[in-house]
Amino acid sequence: QVQLQESGPDLVKPSQTLSLTCTVSGGSITTSGYHWSWIRQPPGKGLEWVGTIHRFGTSDYRPSLRRRTSISRDTSKNQFTLQLSSVTPEDTAVYYCAGGRTYGGNSRTDYDYWGRGTQVTVSS
């Protein structure tokens, strides 16, 4: 079965860049019809789609985060990576990677596969 695992630092200082990697096993990130996304959940708030990378390497981002967000991939490692620059405490959240046949939604049912999530705190 498809499994996703997030990895990266759990503490980032304000103004720095948050970088997280999602490792996918049991399925290829280049599989036709599938999209690979990052979703976050700030404390006390709902899920918030951050961005998605597609089969051929193009990406889409949440409009409010577009200027600060970059998603890339390493197909040889079956990994994709989130970089969120110029972070503030408002970026503190549990960050999830997810995959499925749709993208851009803010509901758990919008995606077929989920990582466990990783807590990232932005603090000095």
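The record above closes out task 2.4. Task 2.5 opens with a second protein, given below.
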Amino acid sequence: QVKLVESGGGSVQAGGSLRLSCATSGSIFSINAMGWYRQSPGKQREMVAGITSGGSTVYADSVKGRFTISEGSAKNTVFLQMNSLKPEDTGVYYCNAVRLVTRDDTYPELWGQGTLVTVSS
């Protein structure tokens, strides 16, 4: 009934930029925090950026200074602006929400299906 939908993935050259977006579907009352995670084949999924409902942000050391997470003007929408992309950034990027509240349910954690980002050297 409620979903997170990522978009904006694609193939870019090293040094390029890409903007990912995550939109919610369904009637959402509130979300405590949202974040972006990535997973490469054979590697553990890791958090790359997160933002709380109050606007506080956190970043993985590997992306700090290059990636920016932000809230959209639309309600319950989050973006990940990725600049100076490196081949090491290649992976499937997943949108995550914690404490997502609807009229009928509270979701402790919810994941999108992911969007593929490929960075070539």
